[in-house]
Design brief:
Length: about 400
């Protein structure tokens, strides 16, 4: 239930500008909320007088009215759908089949209508699309208000977000607004007794925890990229596109993006999309020694990654950190150079098809995860590898 304290309301109109569904009006200098309100909470967040309150009943909710598996489709800066979305749709299709419910994709942005077909090929039977120029660039207030409104209108059973920078910001805001449970950074999803069983690393990755949310809906989780398999697209599939209209006012948004600074290296693939990743750790000894990793990556058409300690030392940007607090990768070929093999790093790379470890310590834990191990100094072995690769290329 949403209420306006008329004695406190000053009629400042900030709630009118913030409402994404244009259902708030000012009458006699007091805010009035129309019947179309989805209780997204945008007005509550901007009200300077705390005149608007929302009471959300968590207990005694009829859970049977919540149905459908939703996947939030994340759009990249280049106006393409991020690969993790297709991984989530593949898993979502499995969950939907087991629960006998529909699989829906939810996509927000600007000029994105052409993307609906691609979502359908990975199993979405319906696509809920919200287009607005202010959604062209991610904004926490705008995106969370729209998602909360859609949830209040359609009552989904399960809502999955990618555990990307965007998803890790958006999902907690939605969960907090609706007072829902949320499991972050999941590595596995399944159905148990009709509930979503959400699996994630705990205690520094030393154990795997299974978590359920039996009392609130939707059941929400963020899922790491590259931990779930992506199915093959079926071009014969089609989806019903449901277009939702919103009315967003830039004056109602509390934040504004003035500049986007990219820390990724220009002209290289994203680390979570590369077929070959060459990562360096403390054993590389100096920042300059990463130049040899760059040379090896160039020969193998790969990208250079790093362990957390390298990021902390400032040798490489955060965007290439592999591990529990960084990015999960699953390339065809992974080099671990001068990396000891702590669990915090290996949880982010052990999905690789082939792992090659190079370390001076023959007892380093990294060798337990590797198909191939080279014991020795990285500064001697890597140049030798580069030389051999170039020799074989020249002989072709």
């Amino acid at each position: 239930m949403i209420e306006v304290d008329l004695e406190v309301c000053s009629g400042c109109q900030k709630c009118v500008k913030a409402c994404p569904f244009a259902v708030i009006t000012i009458v006699d200098k007091k805010a009035q909320i129309g019947d179309g309100c989805n209780m997204c909470g945008a007005c509550v967040q901007v009200c300077p007088e705390d005149a608007i309150t929302i009471e959300r009943k968590v207990k005694d909710v009829d859970l049977s009215k919540f149905t459908g598996i939703w996947v939030f489709a994340e759009v990249s800066d280049d106006s393409t759908i991020r690969n993790v979305t297709f991984e989530l749709l593949t898993k979502g299709a499995e969950l939907a089949k087991e629960l006998n419910q529909e699989l829906l994709a939810v996509i927000l942005g600007h000029n994105i209508e052409h993307l609906s077909k691609e979502l359908a090929t990975y199993g979405a039977s319906k696509v809920i699309m919200v287009e607005h120029e202010l959604l062209g660039q991610y904004n926490t207030d705008a995106y969370s208000s729209v998602i909360v409104g859609l949830i209040s209108k359609y009552n989904p059973n399960i809502l999955l977000f990618p555990a990307t920078h965007l998803g890790r910001d958006l999902a907690p805001r939605v969960a907090a607004t609706l007072e829902l449970g949320l499991t972050a950074d999941c590595t596995g999803l399944s159905i148990s007794d009709g509930l979503l069983l959400q699996t994630r690393p705990a205690f520094g990755g030393n154990i795997m925890a299974d978590i359920i949310c039996p009392y609130t809906r939707p059941q929400m989780a963020t899922v790491r990229p590259n931990v779930l398999p992506k199915g093959e697209p079926d071009q014969s599939r089609s989806a019903e596109v449901i277009k939702e209209e919103v009315s967003l006012d830039p004056k109602g948004l509390r934040t504004k993006v003035r500049e986007v600074i990219k820390t990724s290296i220009e002209g290289t693939k994203k680390i979570d999309e590369a077929d070959c990743v060459i990562s360096g750790g403390r054993g590389m000894c100096t920042e300059e020694n990463f130049n040899t990793l760059e040379e090896l990556a160039k020969e193998l058409n790969g990208v250079v990654g790093a362990s957390r300690v390298v990021i902390d030392l400032g040798w490489r940007p955060k965007s290439v950190q592999v591990g529990q607090s960084g990015i999960t990768v699953s390339p065809k070929l992974y080099f671990a150079c001068g990396i000891s093999g702590a669990i915090q790093h290996t949880v982010g790379m052990r999905g690789a098809d082939v792992i090659v470890a190079i370390n001076k310590d023959k007892n380093a834990p990294i060798f337990e995860f590797s198909q191939y191990g080279l014991v020795g100094d990285c500064q001697e072995i890597i140049p030798a590898l580069i030389k051999e690769i170039r020799t074989r290329k020249a002989g072709q």
